[in-house]
Amino acid sequence: MRKNKLLYLASAILLVISGCMPAGNGELIGVQGRELWYPSDPYGTLFIPSGSFHMGQSDQDISYAQVQSNRVVSVHAFYMDDTEITNNEYRQFVYWVRDSIARKLLAGDFLIDEGEYNERIDWYKRVRWDDEENSEILDELFLPEEERFYRRYQLDTRKMNFEYWWIDYKEAAKKSNRNKPRSAHIKSDIVNIYPDTLAWVHDFVYSFNDPMTQMYFWHPAYDDYPVVGISWRQARAFSAWRTYLLNSFRKGLGLPFVQDFRLPTEAEWEYAARGGYDASPYPWGGPYIRNTKGCFLGNFKPLRGNYMDDGGFYTVKATSYWPNAFGLYCMAGNVSEWTSNTYDESAFSYHHDLNPDYRYDAQANDPPALKRKVIKGGSWKDIGYYMQTGTRTYEYQDTAKCYIGFRNVMSFLGRDKADFSK
Which pTM was predicted? Predict the structure, then answer.
């Protein structure tokens, strides 16, 4: 009996001691208690799996420029918007910038003090635009009286500026920069984010497009049409805001942050546009721009002087025509799309075959040749050649056109969705 008591006592002491020791019984088991991660598709996006493909011209190089020589590359998995960013989606960005400026002007209860160097906007407090006291403070957001058309109270779009920051990892990774302070690699930009609605007029001479300038961005009839008149810098600012919007929501729920929204690289865009077909010149998988019934498969300029035979005139709704095998709409035609890459005629000869990427952040005083950014997909005013997945051309980063839009991507966390299946 005494031996049993001693045995029970020894067992109890052992349990107490083991409870005070770190978990794992001395084995390497990793940090315990971390929350599980299951990927979820960001709203409006589709999952594009990792893969390799022949990047570049899939048909004859009719211009003989040899700026898209064919080579095999590999691209990591990512999410991509199933349509181009629409007017209504971009309008959410414009309204957010407008409301954030209004709250900063009103200050007081609309800002939350988070210490000596930081203030956060309180989005739960509603701005009463019709309040007499508020309207006096917010008056600077609107056009001065001498600039108003028929004395209408209109927003001064020149005030719609958005500031954002990012880390230049390529500069930070250079050995010569390792000992520099972190602040040396934090970049910022201030961008006026309102679309250039006059692009419909200044892009074409001796052509009547005034109604599109007057109505296209704000009228409900065009809510689901792709936003245009957006420069490369504006598209990048939108991506930064969209990242902030999602991560702020996740932070409030105690969820981990996700990867940044961004413009796709040229390789990502082309890989997604092909829809899994390696050598097809068009997103729908065939070598022709008509189907078996003779109908055109995208919104472009099908015949000389004829913009209508494909069913469109200017742009069409972002979900028009059939999607490709990945489920992506209008990867050929409708509007050309910005990519993140800088345009260089010989880039295909020297960029890497693993997630190819060539970027240069051109400054305002850089020569124009360094400000060229790759655009892909062709538009409603282009001939069929520009609809080919391998065709590449460019536009300058600080210009906005009525035939260029964009869509976002987000890098996938992990190898493949199948790895997270329950």
Answer: 0.90
Query: In the beta sheet, which residues pair with residue 191?
Result: 162
- Over range 397-412, report the average pLDDT: 97
For residue 9, the model assigns a pLDDT of 54
Q: Is 272 helix (H, G, I), strand (E, B) or coil?
A: helix
Q: How many CB atoms within 10 Å of residue 347? A: 18
Alpha-carbon span 23 to 332, nearest angstrom: 56
Helix locations, 28-111, DSSP H: 87-106
Please provide the DSSP assignment of 236-267 as one string.
HHHHHHHHHHHHHHHHHTTPPP-PPEEPPPHH
Q: Which residue type occupies 202?
A: H
- The greatest distance separating any two alpha carbons of the chain, rounded to the nearest whole angstrom, comes to 109
Q: What are the structure tokens assigned to 174, written together? A: 């250079």
Cα 25 from Cα 71, distance rounded (Å) = 52
CA angle 336, 325, 309 (to 5 degrees): 50
With a CB cutoff of 8 Å and minimum separation 6, the contacts of 139 are none
Instruction: Please report whether residue 106 resides in a domain.
Output: no
Residue 284 three-state SS: coil
Residue 144 lies in a domain: no
Which comes out higher in pLDDT, residue 17 or 282? 282
CATH number at residue 405: 3.90.1580.10
Separation of alpha carbons 11 and 338, rounded Å: 69
Contacts of 167 (CB under 8 A, 6+ apart): 185, 186, 187
d(CA 16, CA 37) in angstroms, rounded, equals 34
* Element of type H or E holding 161: strand 161-167
Better-predicted residue by pLDDT, 80 or 293: 80
Rg of the chain over Cα atoms, rounded to whole angstroms, equals: 27
Query: Across the strands, what pairs with 164?
Result: 189
CA distances in angstroms from 239 to 90, 162, 166, 289, listed in the order given: 10, 12, 11, 32
Q: For the CA atoms of 83, 89, 93, 96, what is the dihedral angle to 10 degrees?
A: -150
Q: Is residue 18 part of a domain?
A: no
User: Which residues, at least 6 apart from 316, have a Cβ–Cβ distance to it below 8 Å?
Assistant: 225, 299, 334, 380
Give domain status of residue 203, yes or no.
Answer: yes
Kindly report the number of other CB atoms within 10 A of residue 189's CB atom: 14
Domain housing 276 = 50-86+195-228+268-415
Highest mean pLDDT among 8-17, 216-225, 281-290, 382-391: 216-225
